[in-house]
Design brief:
Mean pLDDT: 88
Number of helices: 4
Low-confidence stretches: 19-34
Number of strands: 19
Order of helices and strands: HEEEEHEEEEEHEEEEEHEEEEE
Strand order of the largest sheet: 4-3-2-1-6-7-8-9-5
Length: about 325
C-alpha cells in the first residue's frame, strides 16, 4: 500500500512538472511570437532631416538638416553647424533597432517608463515621408550586464509613437536626444597641430602683449629663453580646443582689442580675436568664422607672459 502511494505521488509530481514546463514554453512562445524582431530600420543615406522634440526644450522642435555632406541644426530662427559626427551618432542607434524585451502593452504604463506625450520624440524624415517616429523614455540598468544587454548593461525604454507597446532597447538614447539646441552645435574653437606652430603673437591691451618664437629648437620670449615644458603644454591644448559657452548675443561693433596669432613655416595657421565685455571676453577664431564664444572655459588660451617663464629656483 505504501509503495502504491509513493508511486502515485511520483506520477503526480512528474505530471505537475510537465505542466509547469509546458506552460513556460507556451508563454515564451506566445511572447516571442507577438514581440517585434525589429522596431526600426533606417537607411542613413536616405535621411534628409531628423526632427527632435526634447523634453529639455519643453518639446520645441529642433531639426537636424542634411545640406550636402554637412548637417545644420535649426530651432526657430536660429541655425548653426552640427557638431562633427553628431547626426551620424544619432542615426546609428536606428539602423537596426531591435527590442530586448516587450515591457508593456498598456497605455497606462507610458508615464512610468517616460514614453508619454511629453517625452522626447524623434522623427526621421526622407523629404516629407516619415521613416521612423519614436518616443525616447528613461534609462534602465542590467546590474549583471549579461546578454542580451550590451553597452555596459544600459538600456532605454522606447515606444513607437503610433503604438501602445513599450520596449527596452540597447543603449543610452536619452542622453543622445534629450538635450538643448546648443548641445547639438559644433563647439570646436581651435584645431591646430602643435608641431606646426613656430610663433605665437599675443596682442593684449595696454601694451601687455608679447611674442613666443621657436629658434634653434628652443622657445624664446624676446631674448629670454622660455620654459619649453610650459610652452608645449600651452600648444598641446590648441590641437583640440572646444568651447561650450556660446556668445550668440554678441555682435562686434569695432576692432578687436585682443588677438592671438598662431604661425608656422607656411604662414598664419589660425587667429583668435577678443572683445571685452562686462564680465568676460567674446572670442572668435578663424576655425569657425562668425561664431562667438564666451571666454569662460577658455581662460587657458589667454595666457600671460609670466606663465611662460622658467620657475624661480628657491
Amino acid at each position: 500500500m505504501k509503495k502504491l502511494n509513493n508511486k502515485i505521488l511520483l506520477i503526480v509530481l512528474v505530471a505537475l512538472a510537465a505542466v509547469f514546463v509546458l506552460s513556460r514554453l507556451f508563454r515564451a512562445s506566445s511572447r516571442d511570437g507577438n514581440a517585434r524582431k525589429e522596431l526600426v530600420a533606417i537607411d542613413t543615406a536616405a535621411v534628409t532631416e531628423i526632427k527632435i522634440y526634447p523634453s529639455a526644450e519643453k518639446n520645441q522642435e529642433i531639426t537636424l538638416v542634411r545640406e550636402g555632406k554637412k548637417w545644420n541644426v535649426k530651432m526657430g530662427n536660429r541655425s548653426a553647424v552640427v557638431e562633427q559626427g553628431g547626426a551620424m551618432t544619432a542615426m546609428s542607434y536606428f539602423i537596426h533597432m531591435k527590442p530586448i524585451n516587450l515591457i508593456s502593452r498598456k497605455k497606462t504604463k507610458w508615464k512610468e517608463f517616460n514614453v508619454a506625450d511629453t517625452s522626447t520624440r524623434v522623427k526621421f524624415m526622407k523629404g516629407n515621408d516619415v521613416l521612423a517616429d519614436v518616443r525616447i523614455g528613461r534609462i534602465g540598468f542590467n546590474q549583471q550586464g549579461q546578454p542580451p544587454y550590451g553597452r555596459g548593461g544600459v538600456f532605454t525604454y522606447v515606444r513607437l509613437s503610433a503604438e501602445d507597446e513599450v520596449y527596452s532597447v540597447d543603449g543610452f538614447l536619452e542622453s543622445i536626444f534629450n538635450k538643448p539646441y546648443n548641445d547639438w552645435r559644433d563647439k570646436a574653437f581651435l584645431r591646430v597641430k602643435q608641431n606646426q606652430i613656430t610663433k605665437v603673437s599675443f596682442v593684449y591691451p595696454a601694451d601687455s602683449g608679447f611674442v613666443l618664437e621657436k629658434r634653434d629648437k628652443k622657445w624664446w620670449l624676446g631674448n629670454s629663453e622660455a620654459d619649453s615644458t610650459k610652452v608645449k603644454a600651452y600648444l598641446a591644448q590648441l590641437e583640440f580646443k572646444n568651447a561650450t559657452a556660446f556668445a550668440d548675443d554678441f555682435s562686434p561693433s569695432g576692432e578687436a582689442s585682443l588677438s592671438i596669432q598662431l604661425s608656422g613655416s607656411a604662414g598664419v595657421l589660425s587667429t583668435i580675436q577678443g572683445w571685452k565685455r562686462t564680465n568676460d571676453w567674446a572670442l572668435n577664431s578663424t576655425h569657425q568664422n562668425g561664431i562667438y564664444f564666451s571666454s569662460k572655459g577658455l581662460e587657458t588660451v589667454l595666457e600671460r607672459r609670466k606663465n611662460f617663464l622658467p620657475s624661480k629656483k628657491k
